[in-house]
Amino acid sequence: MGVYTDLREKLISDYATLSPQMQKAARHILDHPNDVALRSMRALARAANVPPSTVTRLMAAIGVDTWQQFRDSYQNRLLDLPASYAHRARALQNSDADIHRDAHLLQSIAQAEIANIGQVFAPEMCERMKDACEHIARARQVFVVGRGAAYPAAYQFAYAYRLFNENGVLVDGHAGAFGDQLRGIGPRDVLIAVGARPYIRDTVRAVAFARKQHCPVIAVCDSDVAPIAVDAVAKLVVSDSSPSFFQSFTTSVSVMQALVALLVARGGQKVLQRIAVAEEQLAAFDTYHEEAAPTRNSRS
Question: What is the spatial distance between Cα 107 and Cα 154, in angstroms, rounded to a whole number?
Answer without folding.
Answer: 28
